[in-house]
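Re: that backbone. Tokens:
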């Protein structure tokens, strides 16, 4: 990600602020850092949601990145440490920004500058942390999915979840979703290990999953380059909100006319799709700010926060760190769409813009079905 246009101007503000925070009489900041250093491994992870070793690694990278002003290079690491830990505290909790300001005796403007800088830095890692499967990874992912319920050649599971936000000052009705709150959509594809391989965030909450999907870059690229995106006859699976395409297989429509084998296929399909429910649960459970981003009206800032959380999630997955959030108070919204989505299912959902589209749709799903039950 390129640095913002006002990067140098912000440095003139943030640099002296950090210098004063570290060297001035900001006892709450000093206490904050000392208390965190004293936490056990378990306490550190419970409160900041990341393992200590990953946090230390990221602090070091942030310090060398140039995204934190070097008002005094001698204290570069401490500046990066303060900024990153404040960011983790923010994204790990739901308390308002004003409460954070009082807690750490920091101006709200200073906290906002810090959050923006850490977000900008994390977004530079999107292309290395959230990557489309290539080479041997394709086989590994397909084997991982096949081991779950026996469906071959699955490269990923696609779905959307809603990120609750405050009522935007502009075009608010566009963001009011069918669950009766304001939100933006996060469309994601995950592999068999709960890892994000593609994310698309920011569509207004009033759009259906199908509408979000058709707006996404993934849809447009895959429609013209499916053999590259989905080598060796691989495909995605999604729920009944999604169209049936040569590279995307939804379940059979719920109907009294389904055969017993089609019902079983839908069960296997649904059970395999649970991996994305678990991924969204991990994401929102680990980074509780995503339950309700209530501090800002700026949709771009919210989008960046969500994508940064996805980046950190993949850091944890790559380090084999899956945290048990069962004792946390997590307001997990995802999953309800499976109960209400069928009413939005219509002919347009199944259509694809190419000749003989119905034959292609039936052949692809039937092909997968026959591989399992033949």
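Recovered sequence:
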């Amino acid at each position: 990600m390129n640095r913002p246009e006002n990067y140098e101007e912000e440095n003139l503000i943030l640099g002296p602020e950090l210098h004063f925070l570290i060297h001035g009489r900001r006892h709450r900041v000093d206490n904050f850092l000392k208390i965190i250093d004293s936490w056990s491994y378990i306490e550190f992870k419970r409160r900041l949601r990341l393992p200590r070793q990953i946090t230390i690694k990221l602090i070091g990278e942030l310090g060398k990145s140039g995204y934190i002003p070097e008002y005094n290079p001698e204290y570069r690491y401490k500046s990066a440490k303060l900024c990153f830990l404040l960011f983790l505290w923010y994204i790990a909790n739901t308390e308002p920004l004003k409460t954070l300001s009082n807690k750490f005796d920091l101006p709200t403007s200073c906290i906002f500058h810090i959050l923006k800088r850490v977000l900008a830095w994390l977004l530079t890692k999107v292309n290395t942390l959230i990557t489309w499967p290539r080479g041997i990874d394709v086989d590994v992912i397909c084997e991982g999915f096949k081991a779950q319920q026996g469906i071959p050649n699955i490269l990923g599971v696609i779905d959307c979840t809603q990120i609750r936000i405050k009522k935007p000052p502009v075009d608010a009705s566009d963001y009011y979703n069918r669950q009766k709150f304001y939100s933006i959509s996060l469309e994601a594809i995950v592999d068999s290990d709960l890892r994000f391989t593609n994310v698309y965030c920011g569509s207004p909450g009033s759009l259906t999953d199908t509408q979000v999907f058709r707006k996404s870059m993934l849809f447009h690229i895959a429609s013209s380059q499916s053999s590259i995106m989905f080598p060796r006859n691989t495909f995605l699976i999604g729920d009944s909100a999604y169209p049936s395409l040569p590279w995307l297989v939804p379940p059979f429509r719920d109907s009294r006319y389904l055969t017993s084998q089609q019902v079983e296929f839908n069960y296997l399909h649904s059970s395999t799709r649970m991996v994305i429910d678990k991924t969204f649960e991990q994401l929102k459970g680990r980074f509780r700010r995503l339950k309700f981003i209530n501090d800002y009206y700026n949709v771009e800032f919210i989008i960046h926060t969500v994508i940064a959380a996805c980046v950190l999630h993949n850091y944890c997955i790559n380090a084999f760190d899956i945290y048990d959030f069962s004792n946390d108070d997590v307001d997990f919204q995802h999953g309800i769409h499976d109960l209400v989505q069928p009413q939005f299912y219509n002919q347009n959902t199944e259509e694809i813009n190419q000749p003989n589209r119905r034959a292609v749709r039936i052949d692809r799903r039937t092909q997968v079905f026959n591989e399992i039950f033949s």
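The first strand starts at residue 154 and ends at 164. The chain has a mean pLDDT of 84.
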